[in-house]
Amino acid sequence: MEKCEGNSTLKKASTNQFLNFVRHTMFGQRRHVVIAAFVLFGIAYSDAGISVYPTEIFVVSPNRSAPLTISNPTDSIIEVWVSFGHGYPVAFDSGKVSMSRSDTAGIGDLTASKWLRVYPQRFTLGAQGAQVIRVFGTPPPGLASGEYWARVVVSSKPKNARLAVTRNNQTKLMMELVSQTTVPYHFRTGVVSSSVVVKQARASMDDGYLRLRVDLRRAGNAAFWGRINYKLLSSSGKVIRMKDYRVVAYKEMSYSVLDTLPSVYEGPYSVELIIDNVHPSVAAQYRISSEPFRQRIPVTVP
Amino acid sequence: MKTLLSLIVVTVLVSSMALSQSGGSAAVDAVFTVGTALAIPVAVPGDFGDLAPGTTYTILSDGTISPADVNGQTVVLPVEWDLAGQSGANVAITFALPPYFTSLTGARVPYTVNTQSAGWSAFAYGAGSAYNPIDARVENSITLIGGTATVQLGGILAVPLGADGSYSAQFVLTAAYTGL
Lengths: 302, 180
Description:
A: four-stranded antiparallel sheet, disordered N terminus, B: five-stranded antiparallel sheet
């Protein structure tokens, strides 16, 4: 005896039946082949996708609002809702980067999440649809100079529940997926400044790898967005290798770089390190001017 | 191509903002920065098979299920999220997972994960792409190699005696650029 639950559409049921047909009959049980078949046959089988642009928001007083475009990359109808939180990337001694998240700001953090609003806050997006929302701030009067942070959290889930079909004495598990992306928000007022202080920079070369470790601390009253450029120089000053890495420091950060090297002879070399404020995804008008940091580190290939 | 599309979007939006400012208002919108949007274009609910009461099932991130489900299937469909964005960018991902699945009558099927329950790879359909196990209980950082990544999730299900019918639960994946 078959039992049916949920309020999904016939189209969804057909999709499920086709999925089971493909999975059990045509292609055996390999997931990748199944999903590839859906892609090839143009059948959307995605429950909750989301795309958000831009990737960072910078608002400079007296401006108050910023647009955010939210897109539905799937062929399903989705519900979208927007909320605010607080968080920023941090790195531990291991060099592993993670997000420090919370609903409230940490000690010493300047948070904007309490006075941010969004309109519309909740809405439905049709297949492949898009909606521009506005994030606007109502900062309290007399706000001290500085940069106030928040994270805009955009969530989506399918509008229609999926159909569950089970047989007696068997258990079927249904999943509702929620997809979330978060966008960092920065509100600047008054005089803002930002730079980095390098607490320690180390470099070594062995086994065909260059290892670079940079521990830095943000200075000023705004997050530092920039890049680390390193050059590997021979003893005669010839550039052997050059590479850029993005750097973001809200407070303290540790960066560990492991880069493969071309064949080099034994002997002395040096690594030239430059940290400046040119982050590739931050437009020029939002860069906070600061003197680039420069350091040359001697290294030896044993 | 994505960068080109982003530039087109920026151009259109900046142009529209410029037009909207023609009314003479002093306050203007923030201008967009240039970057590739972080997208989750695919979110596929798993199908953990037809499960028997009184059995504990372990589903690895690649869909391997042990013991086999009641139909003899040894591979089921793990939950999958595909991410797309700036090539080479680092993305922090966090799961919010349910402690159990719930039926309409309130009955529960406990759900947990271990270190073999989740993993990610650069591209789901590409042969030879490295598969990276992750612990779904903590935050993880992944890299959008070539601009994409696929995250897969299984789990451990302790189906109680007397369990019957369908159960549901909500799974949340949060993804954010770290800016690196």
